[in-house]
UniProtKB/TrEMBL annotation:
This is DUF2973 domain-containing protein. It holds the Pfam family DUF2973. Residues 29-56 are annotated as: Disordered. InterPro entries: Phage_Syn9_Gp224.
Amino acid sequence: MLHLLYVLAFTILAVVAVSNMLRNMVRLGTDMNRPPSPNKKPQRPVPHPELLDDSGDVINEPLLVMRSISIKDARDQLDALYDASSSGEDVREDG
């Protein structure tokens, strides 16, 4: 008896989902055939908040600067960090 209830419930959910999908497809099709409204003003793009400075102006400088180092230097720095973490010392990078 409980199995029939599950089958009935999921059948109803499937019918609702498929009918909703078909309704949305028909609405999308009619919206594509409709000419654009002349009342709409072109929207200017809004910049992301992280690209603005404190006064609200757009920052025109690079936000990420990477410097290139050799593989040997990178391995030496990682080894120094690993050795310092196991011995309890604090290693700071010269910057």
